[in-house]
Amino acid sequence: MGRYVARRLLQMIPVFLGSTFLIFMMMYVLPGDPVRALMGEQAYDPTVVENIRHDLGLDRPWWWQYGHYLGGLFQGDFGTEIASKREVADIIADAFPVTIRLTLFAFVFMVVVGIGLGVVAGLRPDSVRDRGLLTLTLVLISMPSFVLGYLMQYIFAFQLQMITPTVQDSESFGDLFLPAIVLGSLSLAYVARLTRTSMAENLRADYMRTAVAKGLPRRRVVGVHLMRNSLIPVVTFLGTDIGNLMTGAIVTEGIFNVQGVGNAIFEALTRREGATVVGIASLIVIVYLFTSLLVDLLYAVLDPRIRYA
Amino acid sequence: MTIIDKPADVPAPRPDTDSGTPLLEVRDLHVEFKTRDGVAKAVNGVNYTVSAGETLAVLGESGSGKSVTAQAIMGILDMPPGRIPKGEILFRGEDMLKMSEEERRKIRGRKIAMIFQDALSSLNPVLSVGYQLGEMFRVHLGLSKKDAKARAIELMDRVKIPAAAARVGDYPHQFSGGMRQRIMIAMALALEPDLIIADEPTTALDVTVQAQVMDLLAELQREYNMGLILITHDLGVVADVADKIAVMYAGRIVETAPVHELYKRPAHPYTRGLLDSIPRLDQKGQELYAIKGLPPNLTRIPSGCAFNPRCPKAQDICRTEVPALSLVTEQDGTELPGRGSACHFWKETIHG
């Protein structure tokens, strides 16, 4: 087990380097120039621009720039934004907690409601409520999150006037309620379907018949014997989905004006702030890597047939 | 001061069951399943009784309704699509089909237990065997986790699993096939039930282990004086342990007999066919006998005797009239106790 974890952690190094490199190169080849963007519409002196570019090292070849960036990163320096002169670390420190809060909120919502719906439908396969769930999830899966987002905004903010159309205070859970639902609804549909199918399948398993034949109460048959087996694939999905939620937050944060990483990365992209984009994207990559490691370890705990050497 | 040894745990003597009512009595049981092709009549009027300490072997091909009958007794039929349109299942004189679900649950596992065919898939893969065994004590007797575990170890010792204390935390996949079946037996035995239904308990095992498991089962049954219903299609297994046999075909019992009588003188052509299809050393090199044809489709059971399309002795009456299970007698009319045959020509079959 320890060796397995060590191996997985070591594997993260090349993955991390590779992903930062890819994102860095994408920013590099993107047309546009942060210094020009800085100047905006005003008339400027080309030599001034050249000087700034030289000071920032932007006139050097890509491999020098990448090496320079990585060198800073290993000393814990995410770099500085060109336009605002803000430390990228500061931007991340401001935006990440908001997104994490939104993600967690959405995660809890999709776990509770998704598994709940899945259980209700899975216990009675092919019943009316099962078909109802399949239809509902089909709608959620086929509806892009921005459609759902604007729809919710329209209904709850403009028609019913229950909430403000955009989030006023990104720290408040009450304000994050609607964005979290919009963010979590796609994954919720998948979780519900996965739970439903897994339950319906395990319901017919031989060990379920044994559990009933043992004279166990139905509560125990379902709660212990069925759930324990059925939730294994669901847990796997949930783990890998945390990363998806964080990236999905980019659209949702845009709609509801939540000051999280989604907004930060979007703004940085429009201003060609490479350091910010690479920094945030790399952090999300790390979150992905760690949650998938966690899921793999959890998998071995949940299913004793799986052992890592 | 002397310490008085606690008396060894001897199973409590069973309450007297010889008050006329057998332990279990199945009366005219019918079970049918709704399928896409129509209603499959899996069980069509089965009658049998089992007393304490007695072993009834139910014999038949796949799809003859032997397992379905057992599941109906246990109350673990999938309903729907299953349905019991008719019949009674009396346990100590009380009809279980009229009981509430909660009453039946309390009988399951505690009074009537079941051993399944494939122990690997019948045990929960993600729970330790100790947990699964201990569950019986925790649910039915309300024991604590710790006590339940101690009892689970005792049970594993009881069914001769080596190093029980060390293996109580292991999972089903870590045991061999024979050991797993012992765990199934231990689980059925946990609360010393009055009746055990073993549904092909040795089918998934290799031959040497089969014998061990059957011996263990027979030994424990004697010791606890339990009733045992042994469902099998293996005639070899039956001969050693059973007291009486019921042969099933297409959801009906076609012949009943004390075990050795059946082997000596079958009174139904189907039983005769089964016995003839056992490979024998003295017929080495000859072609093995097989009953021709296939078991009937349960949605379209042939009219008359269900066996008639495959029967070498079939006459016109076999295609029109369903033979009742009639008493079988000697040629001179003396009754043969416990024998019955559902064949129009049982006389010719047994005496001919």
From TrEMBL, chain A:
Keyword field contains Transmembrane helix: yes
Keyword check for Cell membrane: yes
Chief place of localization: membrane
Residue span(s) of domain ABC transmembrane type-1: 96-299
Keywords: Cell membrane, Membrane, Transmembrane, Transmembrane helix, Transport
Record-given protein name: ABC transporter permease
Subcellular location: Cell membrane
InterPro entries: BPD_transp_1_N, MetI-like, MetI-like_sf
Taxonomic source organism: Streptomyces kebangsaanensis
Membrane topology field: Multi-pass membrane protein
Protein origin, superkingdom: Bacteria
Pfam families the record matches: BPD_transp_1, BPD_transp_1_N
Family: Belongs to the binding-protein-dependent transport system permease family.
Residue ranges crossing the lipid bilayer per the database entry: 12-30, 102-121, 133-156, 176-194, 277-302
